[in-house]
Amino acid sequence: MFLSTASLKKCDLSKVDLSSCIFVGDCSFESINIDAEDLNSFSAIGIEILKTIKIWDKEHWKNRKYIQSVTFPGVGEPIVNKMENGKVQPKSKNNIIIRMVYSGLIDFYEFAADKYDNQKGRGVFSRAHFVLSWLIDEKSSINNKLTTLPKYFISRWVAGYGDRPESPITAWLLSVALFAVLLGFSGIEIAEHTVTFFDQCSFNEVFTFYMKSLYFSVITATTVGYGDIGPSNGISMAPSPLNAIIGMFLYTTFTVVMVRRLFR
Known about the structure:
By secondary structure, the protein is mostly helical. The chain has helices spanning 36-39, 47-64, 96-115, 122-140, 145-158, 166-186, 203-221, 239-262; strands at residues 2-4, 22-24, 67-71, 79-82, 188-190, 193-195, 229-231. The strands form three sheets. It has a three-stranded antiparallel β-sheet. Strands 1-2 form a two-stranded parallel ribbon. Strands 3-4 form a two-stranded antiparallel sheet. A hairpin with a 7-residue loop joins strand 3 and strand 4. Helix 7 crosses helix 8 (239-262). The longest helix is centred in the C-terminal third of the chain and has 24 residues, at 239-262.
């Protein structure tokens, strides 16, 4: 269902599958009734339709880039004016349709986030704000995926757009597990002896050693530093401080997001 260039007055979107809705154009949402349960579903952003439109827009561009303008005299067929001398439209004109769709969805979720920005609707606001941030990142990355990837990787998967405390804690757990592997291969010092994965002979020994390496990774990431296990002299001295820096960054991010979520 496409809702476009209209004032949606007395429109009831409760119990409507928003995954099948796309908003295009200058829409006004002031009088619509939104089902909060639908907003809490990730499918509410019409993600399946977005995939279809992306494919269609990409295929359509193959012909559209050679068209300068289309005029309709009022009778007969529209007049298609081609670019001259084999020229093509600039790449900035590409993905126009999908950008319009993202803009319409962004307007809708801006309205939804504003409507539920209160103590009673805190959960719905959090969901709407998360999806809104997701849509803005997706729109900005259409033509610049490589340059925008680091930004929205951190904001989406690490910080959870400030609405997902589980995102930074999950990232923290993954980081300590990864550093445990790196430290296990580079070597850790236990009882004044350097030990690595290569010194283990069986699966049980590898597993036991990994748990010790994981323990060291956790106490490093939390900057506790009991001193019973340490990095060996050499290559393992490089990932250890990085483990501590990333661990404290993610722990602080989790604290900020959690407080923001609780006291919004």
